[in-house]
Amino acid sequence: SFNFDDLFLLSDNIIEEQTPSSFEIDQYQLQTLSNNNSTQEYQLLNLECRVCGSPAHGYNFDQITCESCKAFFRRNALRDMSHLKCRFSGSCIIDIYTRRQCTYCRLKKCFDIKMRKD
Predict the structure, then answer these.
(1) Where is the signal peptide (predicted)?
(2) pTM of the predicted structure, to 2 decimals
């Protein structure tokens, strides 16, 4: 016959052996927040820059960004985009490897994801 007491003893041992760190608890709390299917909360869990996809540290200019894209946007947000030109088709892929190749497309992507100037 099956003994439920043995099962509970076994599960108690497993739980004691796998006590979560505070980082894991924070990640769990963020994951719990993301269960309501909110895109921003899901992105908080992954902390991926919305501009280039590199690891991010938090919200900057109302979007999750890496330090590089935060600094780029701070320096360029007030520029007149009519003075910038793309050397290609105007739809460059902006990622961690190519983000420095086209100022126009990177700034355009910042505005496309609704980064705020103020």
Answers:
(1) none
(2) 0.62
